[in-house]
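Chapter summary example: a protein plus flavin-adenine dinucleotide.
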Amino acid sequence: APAAVIKMQIVVIGAGQAGLSAAYHLKRRGMAPHKEFVVLDQSPEPGGAWQHRWPSLTLSTVNRIHDLPGMPFAEALDTTATEMPANTAVPTYFAAYEKRFELPIYRPVTVKVVCKRDGRFRIETDRVQFSARGLINATGTWESPYIPDVPGRDRFKGRQLHTKDYKTAEEFRGKHVVVVGGGISGIQLLDEISRVTRTSWVTRRPPEFRQGPFDAEAGRAAVAKVEDRVRHGLPPDSVVSVTGIPFTPAIEAMQARGLLNRLPMFSEITEDGVRWPDGTSLRAEVILWCTGFRSSLDHLAPLMLHGESGGITMTGRLATQAAKDPRVHLVGYGPSASTIGANRAGGAAARELMEFLDLA
Ligand code: FAD
């Protein structure tokens, strides 16, 4: 017999910051948990992608994790314990949050594909199937690590890994590690690894360190830049790439240790290292790609949301609504790919989608 299909008004995909914020607002606006909306999450535990972050990323080394709407971090755990790993602190907070607001989260459930069927969305998962009138997608980026296509990548006899796979510097002891990437994770991991072994740092462009505080105005300007791109159908830049890298005391100390002498991007990977166009080469046992992530949206492919400019044209109050299909909201995407942005986007998406579907 064909598998049963569970009918919902709205399905939220992903229970990270963005999905939880959306769920909170859907419930607050009167949607019935379990009956009218559910949240499907493929991770085994609460915490979104935070549960998968490397153990040395602590509450003191993250940029800043904003409170979810309606319940501050400090109610779930002692926020003065700044050495607590983010991969346990955030899951503890999210678990308490989900419980407090009795959010209808189903996990682990992986959404394989979403397609259109009889004027509704069919959400196919590795468990049961759902049908919904509206969709809030909050699947983040963690499942979509990006590694640039450099010639020779398959030839390398050493170890290659991405930020996503990093656990601890100890495993590289005695090896020469080439760290690729000029973002915050690249710099933090370079700092850690350089304490136990030899490192080289490679970035495409000279990194732009930001002196002075990053005030609310600068934050708004950065978000506006990404928002403008997605409203024009261009692929988003990551918010961090437009905010620059804060020149923290940790980075100042790295500079003093001579760690920030970056090399330009190499053009080729050899069996035992990397090579530049002028023939210079460097032997290495490990290449660590801190080259970022892309939005995890493959499961939405049948909805054909992408346009000619390579991105998804976004509209709506905070640019969370897909212009090609107003019943689809993307939260934690583009301008809302930060914890504070995800909070706001969840609220805007819940409201606009309910209004659009005449549920408000
Ligand atoms: P996620 O937290 O990634 O949650 C997405 C959820 O969706 C996951 O639970 C995942 O399992 C699930 N999912 C994915 N695909 C599917 C599927 N097909 N079916 C079902 N479920 C699915 N931002 C900040 O504001 N401050 C910081 O300090 C900060 N530090 C960061 C550090 C690192 C190393 C990285 C990579 C990012 C950092 N960010 C930070 C950005 C941060 O990721 C976002 O701000 C925010 O946490 C993302 O929330 P989200 O809800 O969009 O996604």
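Key point: Residues 8 and 35 are 7 Å apart (CA to CA).
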